[in-house]
Amino acid sequence: MPTAAEVLVEALVEQQCDRVFAVPGESFLHVLDALHDHPTLPLVTCRHESGAAFMAAADGALTGRPGVAFVTRGPGATNASIGVHVAFQDSCPLILFVGDVARPMRDREGFQEVDLPAFFRPLAKWAARIDDPERVPEYVARAYATAMSGRPGPVVLALPEDMLAQGCTARVRPCVYRPAQPPCPDAVGTMLQMLGDAAAPVALVGGAGWNAKARHYFQQFAERLGLPVATAFRRQDAIPASSPVYAGSLGYGPNPELVERVRAADVILCVGARLGEATTDGYSVPEPAAEGVQLIHVHPDPEELNSVYPAALAICADPAEFSESACLWVGEDLIGFDAGQEAHAQWRRWSMPPAPRHALDLARCVGLAGELLPPDTIVCNGAGNFAGWWHRFWKYEAWPGQLAPTCGAMGYGVPAAIAAALRHPERLVLAVSGDGDFLMTGQELATAVQHGASLIVIVVDNGSYGTIRMHQERSFPGRVIGTDLRNPDFAALARAFGCQGVAVRTTEEFRAELAEARGQSGVRLIHCQVDAEQLAASGATISGLRGES
Q1: Long-range Cβ contacts of 493-500 (<8 Å, 24+ apart)
Q2: For residues 188 and 240, what is the distance between their CA atoms, to the nearest angstrom?
Q3: What is the architecture of the domain spanning 4-165?
Q4: 339 Cβ contact partners less than 8 Å away, ≥ 6 residues apart
Q5: Where are the beta strands (DSSP E) in 311-452?
Q6: Quick check: helix, strand or coil at residue 212?
Q7: For residue 412, which of 289, 353, 382, 480 is within the disulfide window of CB 3.0 to 4.6 Å?
Q8: What pLDDT is recorded for position 430?
Q9: pLDDT above 80: residue 548
Q10: Residue 260 · residue 202 · CB < 8 Å
Q11: Domain ranges in the chain with CATH number 3.40.50.970
Q12: In this structure, what DSSP letter does residue 484 have?
């Protein structure tokens, strides 16, 4: 009779899982042993549970099926919780399996015991414990269904150590898929009528359930109408930057002309996006219930509709199904707009790097990266002001082309890039990190080397927690505390991990090293030593915030 752990692994295989990220723990040794017999289900051994969870979250974002991670109880689970939070706010499917204390030890404060379902319930779509080995196939199938349906998100399942060793006679359940959610035809017709009557419409796209199909059909739909299309925060690959109606992205540091366009819109078509705090700049672009604005909100989760923003027309549908329906409904009698081309021209001006102002000028560096790297490069970043230059000046052309945490979690970039490099070895993968951001999960370079991932890592080192330093200078000019950093030699650190590592101090040095890295394989790290005066992609500087210039 197979053990529950062996049935669990068979269930994962049936659900098309083809990669597992983990930090090994004694609480799920039986699962590790079962994986030993499945060479087609490789195990990626990570160096920290947050890295494993980040990789699984990124893998889920790349494939549309849940990324899978295993960690142990207590400290392993709490370390992994940041990745669960990212998956929740990013609306991407993830299943985190956590080895738990044996059932007789529960509620005795056993070794590393945590009430795992209670701990993860606020962070996940579903958190549960499998106490009965006969129900393992049921729980795994339900976990996949829950993680993918509606608004995708994370599921956490606790696995008591003794349960995994028990025999199991239950058969694995068939592979589950995301259910179809076509829009109501009457609603699509109403939406087209509202757009036809609009004087200044704009679309906002990207988010839950967005995929290549949604991208393809919505682009056709918007271009036929000449409808300006903005993307939600860190969803810039939702439509190609080359599209003649692409208007840029909302979020932190957007184009002021785009902000005014959204505020002046009389109809806003929002597809897939939650209209959360980051995308709307604190619920101000647009304002909830703004007078004279009709919101058409399309989202796969009915609970998201009318939750913060009242919708004149709420459509509960999968973004891809909606986009295909909308595209097929567009007829020749619908009057198009010239606003799309105008908005695209505004974005092109905004995304052009200005004249260099610093020895190693980040705006110019991103412009050079756009010239040197292929357009289908997958750009992965964590959190910090350093990301603003890439959000503004990089042209996200391919799908998937951007992996970035909408919740602003530091340390996401390197693990996400490793997951992307393993998933898409045929494409160039770029991790962009700040100095503070990199040292959250930089040890995962060892994971990349061990598993043969090929990627370029750019570390932007200004010796500071730059975002917090910016807010600090705005609120308390010159009173710096807690934000200065004393950093290692990142290039030497990379070489110690078995990577290639170089340091640059000027834009021309960056150009030369990036061009060389482009033609190589393995892990290549470029340590960019920049002046802390260069605070943000908006052009903000420390001296400017202090009123010195």
Answers
A1: 493/442, 494/445, 494/457, 494/523, 494/525, 494/527, 497/445, 497/446, 497/449, 497/523, 498/446, 498/449, 498/523, 499/445, 499/448, 499/449, 499/457, 499/523, 499/524, 499/525, 500/524, 500/525
A2: 24
A3: 3-Layer(aba) Sandwich (3.40)
A4: 200, 201, 202, 226, 227, 228, 261
A5: 313-316, 378-381, 402-403, 429-434
A6: helix
A7: 382
A8: 98
A9: no
A10: no
A11: 4-165, 352-545
A12: B
The answer to whether domain 185-348 has CATH 3.40.50.300 is no
Output the six-digit token pair for 431: 């991790």
Residue 331 has a pLDDT of 64
Contact yes or no for 332/220 (Cβ under 8 A): no
Whether residue 330 has pLDDT greater than 90: no
Supply φ then ψ for residue 230, to 5 degrees.
-105, 155
d(CA 453, CA 540): 36
CATH 3.40.50.1220 range(s) for the chain read 185-348
Domain 352-545 grouped into CATH 3.40.50.970: yes
CA-based torsion, 290, 293, 298, 302: positive or negative: positive
Residue with the two structure tokens 């998937």: 400
Selection from 187, 186, 152, 179 nearest residue 314 by Cα: 187
**Would residue 381 be called left, alpha or beta, if left means φ above 0 and alpha means ψ between -120 and 50 degrees?**
beta
Query: How many Å apart are CA 71 and CA 79, to the nearest integer?
Result: 9
Mean pLDDT of 426-442: 97
Rg of the chain over Cα atoms, rounded to whole angstroms, equals 24
pLDDT in the model for residue 533: 84
The confidence score (pLDDT) of residue 333 equals 62
Question: Which residue is listed with tokens 């609970």?
Answer: 303
**Model pLDDT for residues 16-66, shown as the tens digit of each residue:** 999 999 999 999 999 999 999 998 899 999 999 999 999 999 999 999 999
Give the Cα separation of 54 and 60 in Å (integer). 10
